[in-house]
Amino acid sequence: MITEEIRAARQQLVLDHFEDEVRQEWDDVLSTFPHPHYELIPTMTVHDGGDQVRGYYHETRVAFPDQRHEIIALRHADDAVIVEFWLIGTHRGPLGKIPATGGTFRVRMTAYFIFDAAENLVCERVYFDTLSMLRQLIGGLNMRNPKNWLLTVRCLRGLLRMAGGEPHPSLVDTVEPELARRPAAAAATAEATAAEVGVSDAASAVAATDTPASTTADGTATAAESVTATEPAGETVTAAGAEGAAETALGASEAAGPPAEAGRDADADASGSRAPERPGTAR
Fold first, then answer.
1. Interval 33-89: pLDDT, tens
2. How far apart are CA 282 and CA 265, in angstroms?
3. What is the pTM assigned to this prediction?
4. What is the CB neighbour count within 10 angstroms for residue 64?
5. How is residue 82 annotated by DSSP?
6. What is the Cα–Cα distance from 244 to 207, expressed in whole angstroms?
7. What strands lie across the sheet with 45-48, from one edge to the other?
8. Sign of the C-alpha dihedral computed for residues 112, 116, 121 and 123 taken in this order
């Protein structure tokens, strides 16, 4: 975690950087970098080194001599200061291939001022909406004046030419960082991976854990073998034991006499009519 002293030092450097840009004191601006480096994400361009960054400053101030800013918010990250701001200016000169329109713009932007482990500012990375800027610059033209028709066409052609360049490789060839994942997300990923294995693999896994039952010639599992497979050691039921248990149960049944239903039928034969049924007795 960064200390309050580091936060304060970073913030002061960034604010000085902004103010020196407004004053167009380029030596002072460049002194905030050991090695000046700008990355402009909307145009996917990089300006690296003092000469390229000075050229970038010159080009933008020719196009917008009164360029200035209004800070919206400033935030600190572990390795950066993040600034949201309004960029404001008047289009007095050519912006690359786009001719001056005389219009004004006010566009919301975000700049990442990135620091290395030695607390050196190593990069200013800027994000903004180019379309919002151009819509304000071209949209302010009076289209009732035929002279502005040609100017609008020239602006659009210039925009297309600028958009046709190749993006800088360092802004395209990115590497996804290793990030900690929440347990729920990790579980969902594991479930999705298991689903990709396929139903056949899942069936094979289940079959491997099942104990196959012995079958007779007609494919029916024999009860004796099934019971034997599930009985604890020393308690296996044999055919002789099962036969003895059946004879014991039969003797007990004969000693108890005929069932109640048979008794009711005998009473009915003696009286000439059947005994009334008890409620709920199924016939």
1. 999 999 999 989 999 999 999 999 999 999 999 999 999 999 999 999 999 999 999
2. 15
3. 0.62
4. 22
5. E
6. 38
7. 45-48, 37-40, 121-128, 104-115, 80-90, 68-76
8. negative
